Known about the structure:
Layout: H1 10-13, E1 27-30, E2 38-40, H2 45-48, H3 64-69, E3 77-82, E4 86-93, H4 104-107, E5 111-114, E6 121-125, E7 134-141, E8 150-155, E9 162-170, E10 175-176, E11 186-191, H5 193-196, H6 207-214, E12 219-223, H7 232-238, E13 244-250, H8 258-275, E14 281-284, H9 296-318, E15 324-327, H10 349-367
Parallel strand pairs: 11-12, 11-13, 13-14, 14-15
Antiparallel strand pairs: 1-9, 2-3, 3-8, 3-10, 4-7, 4-9, 5-6, 5-8
Amino acid sequence: MSDQPEGINVQELDPNMKPPELKTESIQWYSPLEAPFQITGFAWFEKEGLYRRMPQSPSHPLSHGVQSLANCTAGGQVRFRTSSSKLFVKVVLAGIANMYHMPATGQCGFDCYIGEPGEQKYISTTRYDHNQIEFSAPLFEWSNVSSEMRMITLNFPLYQGVKELQIGLTSDAEVAGPAPFADDRRVIVYGTSITQGGCASRPGMCFTNILSRSIPREFINVGFSGSGRGEPEVAHVLAQIERPALLVLDYEGNAGQPEQFRQTLPAFIRIYRERHATVPILVISKIRFAKERFDPVLAQLAEERKQIARETVAAFADAGDKHITFFDGSTLLGDDYEECTVDGGHPTDLGFIRMAEGLAPTFRQLLK
């Protein structure tokens, strides 16, 4: 008899680990593309009707990485009110969950918050067979809760595309439009894989989504994993986003060598300033990576790039730009920064919470 341990099927041992059975009797399905549902987080949605973060036919040629990752739906939200005692989603993804270091619930799932803008509370995440592209999943079902109207926010997947989405509510439920934002101007956050949400356990834990709950505005997440390099073409396209309230540049982690960063950062700012002379710009240096504690060369490169960002912001300010600010991102994760990541660089939920909490006061100040 072999003394080797057998593989464990946790779903057989713990029923709480199984995807829930779907009971969709008396459910009416809605398209969130139609009123009264509101789609936010996709700057070109009103023109193109796509769950996509950059225009299909951009005015300036974008890299293959940016064009591909623009189909990932990070930062997208569906907002509405309903009295329904059940909420389901039907989803057709562009691909399966396939990341080795990020939960499928964050890469490909939706999660749900209930509450008014600035007061949302998490309730659940889609659970489904992660080998499938198409799935249906409940987000809540209850029989002992009052049927009052509730504000719902659904967060889109962070690292996969969504081809189709339907929302299932009880057939007798009321459905209405969402509470409006206090200000319809948008917060645009450009950056790297960390900006995109790698490697949050679920979409609501990406730091831009966390900030959107404490600062109730529309956030446009334009983080491109490995491809947030500060190209001038991207600056031209982002400058076309209407109703900007704040532009955040957090791409140092993909910026390359210090001299490359020294060229791209001021050029990016100048291009944006051609169209938006007074929109606040916040330049954030990157968070600390675990290897920097042990590798002095990596630590020195990070310090050089941070100094370039600081000097660039100071140069614009000295030239008369009163709406540009530098933030030292190396402080965001705290002294135990290595404990806040999955792989030494990409934050866990703990890391994203620390980032959001550290950035929130500066965001609020600039948005005044």
